[in-house]
Design a protein that fits this description.
The complex is a heterodimer of chains A (297) and B (309). Chain A is mainly alpha-helical. Chain A contains 14 helices and no strands. In chain A, helix 3 packs across helix 13. The chains are: A mainly alpha (297), B mainly alpha (309).
Chain lengths: 297, 309
């Protein structure tokens, strides 16, 4: 019975927001980065065919005699220090970098939504305790916190690096969630739902969250880009991903010491990384502009 | 009275955060498996008596919470701990702070001057090619990892063109610090210029600016005095927080340019697994970060009367 009363509320609220989003989707600021990200995702999922585009697709087939050699036919990005094909390595590195970015962001977002919603809905002592906890993790500059924890972590894989980055990544988003949950908590439609005797869980999932999550998604999009950069910096410091994994961070780290002799080793992975991060940030920017009522005028 | 209460509340919150943060650092570094004492012996195993004596000397035979309390107690006396080779972490850091502070302040200054300049320029030229170029350029600069920009600029401007020293601080300020400071500042330009741009734009369309214009004030005065004073509040808040990050974020750049600062010490300590040094430096850097954030609030209240309630 309640179904028929409750359903119209949330969609109409979402409908109000869908309009500017639909307009944003047609802008070049959305289309161009979206296409790039789609292509990169394809590369991350199926690296094989893309790596084999120039005939030498196996990143583990190496010839030390060609260490650091310049690009030639069939090897458009040249050879790395081990004499492996750089193009194949860069293509295969996409998966690790994107995975860390995505995994970290999803993990942080889940924690942020849970903590932020509880703090925002409950208020009082629970809110105070959770807010202090948020402050503690916000007290770490991201890189420094990750340095301390990863320094003592034994094995470092995509999962562990993501977990550590997420450990220091969730507080910003949690604050955001808490803020918007608090502002929606007293809205008429939430009070109405409460009067109707709906459970808190139902109120949160049906009414509060749908109308308070859009700023978090925008920040999350941009976070993916920041995390990819952070992973490469950590790897450069020697506490990120480890060989034999293949990632842009590892390629950049080993290339930076040989930069004078073989600049192409740094340029190509850096190019891929920069284009990825740039696309992600511009996508987030377009979404933010579309969802920010002040910018619509 | 209200102000005093707010200050007490803020400082109290800070204390909670400080204890929490140091607790996390201390436990992650020292509670994990691995025996630093046995590692000291290298290939030759130490006798049980020696191990026991060393454990007692470094208080490793006590429970972890007791070690932590002892450490915090030491912090208040200015003791940042001792490495297993017997060096005081505080002494190790002391001679390196000036380098890090100089580097961070230089980068900060660049960020302020260039960032605010670009922000105001793009706000005044809103929608033009200049505006778009500034927006695009600063985002591109922040999308490339700092160490990539670092080694690239080092190769081009120091090794090939020989405009700056390649590494070290022997050339003194500004020559030795210019390149690393530029690299660090480049990363923050995007945020500073966009924040400034947004708040200048907001203020440009406000009533008091229209009034100032209607009174016939010169545009230079309207922008320079009326708009700027109000527009710089958010930027100032960001910049102050950023200084804390800059002090902690020089780790990579100091490594690349071989500047003997605190970050470089941390970099080396990570590589050689010197737990005590890592904890000591991180604690010190976070302390700096927290104190700066406290100062930020004070400055904020000073600039914006509304914050004072």
């Amino acid at each position: 019975m309640t179904e028929s009363f409750t359903t119209p509320v949330a969609p109409s609220l979402a409908g109000g927001r869908r309009h500017p989003l639909r307009r944003a989707v047609r802008r070049p600021g959305f289309v161009v980065p979206a296409v790039v990200i789609l292509l990169l995702t394809l590369i991350a999922v199926f690296p094989g065919p893309f790596a084999g585009l120039f005939g030498n697709g196996d990143p583990r087939v190496c010839d030390l005699g060609l260490s650091g050699a310049d690009p030639t036919g069939g090897h458009p990005f040249g050879y790395d220090l081990q004499g492996c094909d750089v193009w194949a390595n860069v293509v295969h590195g996409t998966r690790a970098s994107l995975s860390v970015g995505l995994l970290t962001t999803v993990l942080s977002m889940v924690v942020a939504i849970v903590v932020g919603t509880i703090a925002g809905m409950r208020g009082g002592i629970v809110d105070a305790a959770l807010s202090r906890l948020t402050d503690v993790f916000l007290g770490f500059p991201l890189l420094l916190g990750a340095v301390v924890v990863l320094n003592s972590a034994g094995e470092r894989s995509v999962l562990t690096v993501s977990l550590v980055l997420a450990l220091f990544g969730w507080p910003t988003m949690a604050r955001l969630v808490r803020g918007s949950v608090r502002s929606v908590r007293q809205a008429d439609f939430v009070l109405a739902a409460r009067t109707m005797g709906l459970s808190t869980w139902r109120i949160v999932t049906r009414y509060v969250l749908p109308s308070s999550l859009s700023p978090v998604f925008v920040v999350a999009t941009i976070t993916v880009g920041g995390v990819i950069v952070a992973e490469s910096s950590l790897t450069y410091l020697g506490i990120g991903l480890e060989a034999p994994a293949i990632s842009w961070g590892l390629q950049l780290a080993s290339a930076s010491s040989q930069f004078q002799n073989a600049p192409h080793l740094l340029v190509f992975p850096a190019l891929f990384l920069a284009v990825t991060v740039l696309s992600i940030i511009s996508l987030g920017d377009t979404l933010r502009a579309a969802l920010d009522p002040r910018r619509q005028q | 009275m209200k102000t005093a209460l707010a200050v007490v509340e803020r400082v109290g919150g800070l204390a909670v955060v400080f204890v929490g943060v140091t607790f996390v650092i201390y436990f992650t570094v020292f509670a994990l498996p691995g025996d630093p004492i046995r590692a000291l012996g290298g290939d030759r195993p130490l006798s049980d008596a020696v191990v026991r004596a060393l454990r007692a000397e470094y208080h490793l035979d006590e429970p972890l919470w007791q070690q932590y309390t002892r450490y915090i107690g030491g912090l208040f006396r200015g003791d940042f701990g001792t490495t297993f080779t017997g060096q005081s972490v505080g002494d190790q850091m002391a001679s390196r702070w000036p380098v890090t502070v100089t580097l961070a302040l230089s980068a900060w200054l660049l960020e302020i001057v260039v960032g605010i300049g670009l922000g105001v320029l793009s706000a005044l030229r809103r929608g033009t090619l200049v505006d778009k170029a500034i927006l695009g350029g600063t985002i591109v600069a922040s999308a490339i990892p700092v160490f990539v920009v670092g080694v690239t600029l080092q190769l081009v401007f120091a090794v090939r063109l020989d405009w700056f020293p390649v590494a070290g601080v022997t050339a003194g300020w500004p020559a030795a610090y210019a390149l690393p400071a530029i690299v660090i500042a480049l990363f923050g330009l995007a945020s500073v210029s966009r924040l400034t741009r947004a708040s200048v734009l907001e203020n440009l369309s406000s009533d008091y600016v229209r009034t100032a214009r209607a009174k016939g004030l010169a545009p230079r005065r309207v922008i320079g005095v009326h708009v700027m004073r109000n527009s710089l509040i958010p930027t100032a808040t960001f910049l102050a927080t950023d200084l804390g990050y800059l002090l902690g974020g020089t780790v990579i750049i100091e490594g690349i340019f071989n500047l003997p600062g605190v970050g470089n010490l941390l970099f080396g300590a990570i590589r050689s697994h010197e737990g005590a040094t890592v904890v000591g430096i991180s604690t010190a850097l976070i302390l700096v970060f927290l104190v700066t954030s406290l100062l930020v609030d004070a400055i904020h209240a000073l600039l914006d009367p509304r914050v004072r309630r």
